[in-house]
Amino acid sequence: MRLSGKRVFVSAAGQGIGRASALACAAEGAEVVATDVNRDTLASLAGENPNITTVQLDVTDAAAVESFAASQVPFDGIFNCVGFVHNGTIRDVTDADWDFSFDLNVRSMFRVTKSLLPGLLERAEATGGASVVNMASMAGSIKGFPNRLLYGTTKAAVIGFTKAMAADFVKQGLRVNAVCPGTVDTPSLRGRIAASPDPVQAEKDFVARQPMGRLATVEDIAPMVVFLLSDESRFVSGQTMLVDGGVTI
Ligand code: NAD
């Protein structure tokens, strides 16, 4: 019960790392508000743990985020998990791709965090600590990978956002950290493998770049999110926590 007494917000909670993290937080006693744009996947999460409430939310919709924030009592922790992988080099990126990825991967974090900030600061003052966790990646932002120009650029921006926020609020008890996973077996990764010209080889290539010889599971990543949202990480802020199976050793 490491998150007992805490209210936690999660974006992109319908599937993948967001879903596993919502479940892990609920299992540790948090009251979780799990959000996603996809109603169907959210619906399947709703019955999994009584500590989880689901709310359909498109984090690119500024008005929806504002009205969601106005409808909520303060959160002790938020996990900004949403993100999209654009595949390609600079040659493949259009202005529209750039705008879409920056809006979803970066601006949504700014939008959600800014809207929920008053409540977070209120809880930090009342309890001694509140926590923001932002989803970055090892790819592009920590280590260069081919065909990740736009993705890596957005995730580097997430790290910049994380460090700047951490510096601004460190004296007010609000901690802000980023998680940087290796390659994680999630529905979107399966989609990227299936969409490649040779899916069998594509999966082998993803595994080959993991020194531990396997892809991460979502359960490999969720414990880091729980740690960062819990008081166990009370002396940790502004960090990029790599959970990458040794890729960046
Ligand atoms: P995923 O890509 O399989 O699922 C993404 C979820 O985001 C879906 O449930 C989708 O409905 C939701 N979503 C999409 N647009 C949305 C919007 N506008 N508003 C609200 N929700 C929206 O999940 P994943 O692979 O676990 O990725 C989650 C995060 O982890 C992303 O930020 C991704 O960049 C990051 N990440 C993933 C990996 C990996 O290998 N899978 C590695 C490092 C980092």
Commentary on this structure:
- Strand 4, helix 4 and strand 5 form a beta-alpha-beta unit.
- Strands 3-2-1-4-5-6-7 form a seven-stranded parallel β-sheet, sandwiched between helices.
- It folds into two domains: 7-181 and 217-243, 3-Layer(aba) Sandwich (Rossmann fold); 185-215, no CATH class.
- Helix 4 runs parallel beside helix 5 (149-169).
- The chain is built from eight helices and seven strands; from the N terminus they run βαβαβαβαβαβαααβ.
- The chain is an alpha/beta fold and 249 residues long.
- The structure holds nicotinamide-adenine-dinucleotide.
- Nicotinamide-adenine-dinucleotide (NAD) binds at residues 11-12, 14-18, 36-38, 41, 58-60, 81-83, 85, 104, 135, 137, 181, 183-184, 186-189.
- Nicotinamide-adenine-dinucleotide binds next to helix 1 and helix 6.
Q: Say how many strands there are.
A: 7
What characteristic shape results from the CA principal axes?
globular
Order of helices and strands: EHEHEHEHEHEHHHE
Our Rg estimate from Cα atoms comes to: 17 Å
Bound molecules: nicotinamide-adenine-dinucleotide
Give the CATH H-level superfamily of the largest domain: NAD(P)-binding Rossmann-like Domain
Descriptive key words:
7 strands, single chain, 2 domains, alpha/beta, about 250 residues, Rossmann fold
